[in-house]
Amino acid sequence: MRTSLAVLSLTLALCGCATSSLQMAPAAPDHPWSPSVDASGTLTASHSASSITPSQGYVLPPNPAVGDLPVAPIDTSHVYTLADLIDLAESTNPDTRVAWNVARNAALTAGVARSTYLPRISATALGARQTASGTSSALGLSANQNDTFTGSVEVLSLEWLLFDFGQRDALVDAADQGVVIANIGFTSAHQKLIHAVSLAFYAYSAASARADSADLSLKDARNIQTAAESRKKHGIGTVIEVAQARQLTAQAELARVSADGNKSDAYAALLSAMGVSPLSRIQVADASQRPLPADLDRPIDRALTDALARRPDVLAAVAAQKAADAGVRAAKADFLPKVFLSAVGTHANGSLDLSAVPAIGDQSPTVNLSNRRWGATVLVGVTVPIYSGGVRNAALAQARNRADSAEETLSRVKLDASQEVVLANSRLHTSLSAVSASRALLDASQVTYDASLAAFRQGVGSSTDILMAERQLLEARNASVDAHSAALSAAATLALACGTLGAAPN
Q1: For 303-314, what is each residue's pLDDT tens digit?
Q2: What are the extents of the domains in the chain?
Q3: Lowest mean pLDDT segment, chosen from 2-6, 333-337, 437-441, 476-480
Q4: What's the Cα-to-Cα distance from 381 to each of 338, 341, 365, rounded to whole Å?
Q5: Helix or strand or coil: residue 145?
Q6: SS3 for 276?
């Protein structure tokens, strides 16, 4: 009776261990979680974490160990060109390291698939103690028997799949294509990083040029204000002209503040694209004189053909289709017999009464042990699958569905890629045309402004003309800057769409 109660109590205690962990969660949906914090700042969901700390609220305690940002190797005295920024990004951006690890894991997976051609060998050593007790009776007499046996068992086993009608070959082919896909992904990650840094660099260059334009506009506004005040001083101007000129100066001051803020935002976006700390200080080279692409005479159909043959997503889709086809072959081979070799060597010592050693780890069960002797068994056999409740048929159907989906995915990827190339090519041509038009507009606006300012200073021009000319000149400057940046960005985007963006775009 006492034994039964003890067993029942132990069972209830063990059942309560799992549900008692609810104390590690918040006490209620409207109460904050209060974790335990060790000396290093690591948070722990201990059983005391359900306590309520109203003063803390929904603010987590700090962990000093994670408060530092990674430090990039930046030379503050060096002026970084686009190529320099891309090199720095490729060595520090976490995305490239993640893609590299994915490729390495895929290669290891292929190695695991190849290892299935090799035998599996395992060794096990066991030490045991057996106790037997009981009562026997005969002719009205009873006797208690208590025996204890000790001994050891050593087992060496080998399992080797000799032939499987190409199933392992198919699985290795699928794993190899997985390596190809991962390596393509690694290359694609670098291409996307180059593209992101390039666009951020061009955007920062445009924002910097806009800030310079705002400075020039403020200088022009002050010149106009000086001329208006001079006209009024000599009796040929009006109070309204002076007030309008001062308003223009104030607007130029505000525009400069906004342009400086946009420049700071573009700088932060550039650091983010590179994957370095936002507190980094980098001298960025000027891109205002960066040449625009000129060789655009190649037919679009030829460019499209070359792009489809090189784009990472298309090549990855091709590899995925091959892997899916290999999966179909592996599923078909699962219907066929397999030839295997199995060998077991054993040694039993002592007085143990054992007939088998259960499966331990990767080792299969060992049967037919003999006490106090060496033993060896070698088996060569064939396993023939007969009935599995339709599991193999379902697996084959799934593999065929995956192969069909991979084929359709390849078609979809090629169509999407074609559209991206055509659109990127069209946008580049449009951007280059916009550059030419904006430069012509800037030249005309500069002439108009210079003439209007000269006439205003001579007392023959109106304030309306000079104010409008100054506004149009600022807009022309910004349009020229934006068109140049857009053309450079469009060229980088076209190179990415064609799969040729392997270095800093030129």
Answers
A1: 899 999 999 999
A2: 119-132+146-163+337-384, 171-326+395-498
A3: 2-6
A4: 8, 7, 17
A5: strand
A6: coil
Which of 243, 230, 246 shows the shortest CA–CA distance to 458? 230
- Residues sharing a CB contact under 8 Å with residue 402, sequence separation 6 or more, in sequence order: 324, 327
Tell me how far the alpha carbon of residue 499 is from its chain's centroid: 19
Residues 6+ apart with CB under 8 A from 111: none
Q: Measured between alpha carbons, how far is 98 from 104 in angstroms, rounded to an integer?
A: 10
Give me 170's structure tokens.
Answer: 């198919």
* Mean pLDDT value of segment 148-153: 74
Q: Does pLDDT of 188 surpass 60? A: yes
Please count the other Cβ atoms lying within 10 Å of the Cβ belonging to residue 22.
11
75: amino acid identity, one letter: D
The whole-model pTM stands at 0.83
CB neighbours (10 Å) of residue 130? 14
- The domain defined by 171-326+395-498 folds into Outer membrane efflux proteins (OEP) (1.20.1600)
The total number of residues shown for the chain amounts to: 506
- Which of 18-27, 151-160, 270-279, 393-402 shows the lowest per-residue confidence on average (mean pLDDT)? 18-27
Cα–Cα distance for residue pair 284/86, rounded to 1 Å: 12
